[in-house]
Every structure is written in C-alpha cells, then in structure tokens.
Amino acid sequence: MASTSDIRNGLCIRYNHDIYKITEFLHVKPGKGPAFVRTKMKSVTTGKVLDNTFSAGHKIEDVRVETHKFQYLYHDGEFFHFMNQEDYTQIRLTEAALDRPDLLKEGEVVTVLINTEDNMPLSVDMPASVVLEVTHADPGVKGNTATNATKPATVETGAEVNVPLFINEGDKIRIETEKGTYKERVKE
C-alpha cells in the first residue's frame, strides 16, 4: 500500500477494479481545508482517461511493475507486435496500451511496463522524442520564415504534424512524443 505522497508520473495503481497509470498529478494545499492530489489517470486496459482527486494521506494500492526494452516490429491492423531485446520473445499489444501509436516507426526501441503479478504487459512508454522523415509537405516560400507560421506535414509513419514553413519533403525532423509536436530539424 502506498499513499498520495508516493504519486508520480508513470505510477501504476489499482483503482475501481482496473489498473491505471498516472499521467499527470498536482499536489494542492489550499489556504483553507485539507490538502489533496489532483490526478489524470489512463486505464491500461481500455485507454480511457479519468480525472480523479485523492485527499492527502489517502491509501492507494500500487501495482508492482518491471520495465523491459522492446523493439517495435510491425502493426497487423489489430495488434502492435514487439520483441524483447534480452530474450527475443514477442508480445502483441492493442492500440489502447500505446500513447502515440501514430509516431511508432519499425525498429523503434520502447519501454514496456509489465505487471509482476501475472507478467502481462500494461503499457508502452515511448522515448521522449523520435526522428522521422517528412514524406509530404507543401513547398516552403523563401523569406517566409520570420514568423512562427506552420504548415501540416505527413511523416513516414503516416502521422500529421504541424511544422515550420522551411521544412520540405525528405527532411528529417525530431518530434516530441508526449505532445506530438515538432521540435527541430535534424541534420545528418
């Protein structure tokens, strides 16, 4: 058993007969009244996001998890297939277990959280950023880079990202996986 002081991003807890992963939290100490923790939790089975408030000192049942490095192999329409980098065993996960499946490129190494009680995979943590090649973008106009104007661009995984006007087809860009936003152009 843990308490609200143990809440952090990525913590998996058992709540309402399901397992949830904490994605955001905020400790609040108002001027009047008791302290509380406001959380945003994502169900690892359904992908449903839930806002919840715990009073300070509330006991929560945490789920013991292990993290393993897995390599993304392919998507067959229904499942996403991954391979363990240590023993080469393969697992398959539904889209609900993934935060940003549209940014997954074949060969990408991700961290998979596995429940130690039943060895079932719970969720996938993407790297902080990924480098993808732009496959389609309208051509940029010279001299149009002084403003923060953006245009939509399609990357090699099929995801659409807003990029600055100077990005062209064939450029490699770094994308923040948490927000799905453009970060920078990558030179080879």
TrEMBL record:
MF (Gene Ontology): translation elongation factor activity
Pathway: Protein biosynthesis; polypeptide chain elongation
Domain Translation elongation factor P/YeiP central: 67-122
Keyword field contains Aminoacyl-tRNA synthetase: no
Annotated PROSITE patterns: EFP
SMART domains per UniProt: EFP, Elong-fact-P_C
Family: Belongs to the elongation factor P family.
NCBIfam families associated with the record: efp, PRK00529.1
UniProt GO cellular component terms: cytosol
Function: Involved in peptide bond synthesis. Stimulates efficient translation and peptide-bond synthesis on native or reconstituted 70S ribosomes in vitro. Probably functions indirectly by altering the affinity of the ribosome for aminoacyl-tRNA, thus increasing their reactivity as acceptors for peptidyl transferase.
Subcellular location: Cytoplasm
Top-rank lineage group of the source organism: Bacteria
GO BP, one annotated term: peptide biosynthetic process
Keywords: Cytoplasm, Elongation factor, Protein biosynthesis
Any matching Pfam family: Elong-fact-P_C
Stated name of the protein: Elongation factor P
Residue ranges of domain Elongation factor P C-terminal in the record: 130-185
Keyword Protein biosynthesis on entry: yes
InterPro entries referenced in this protein's UniProt entry, alphabetically: Elong-fact-P_C, NA-bd_OB-fold, Rib_uL2_dom2, Transl_elong_fac_P/YeiP, Transl_elong_KOW-like, Transl_elong_P/YeiP_cen, Transl_elong_P/YeiP_CS, Transl_elongation_fac_P
Organism this protein belongs to: Subsaximicrobium wynnwilliamsii
Gene name linked to the record: efp
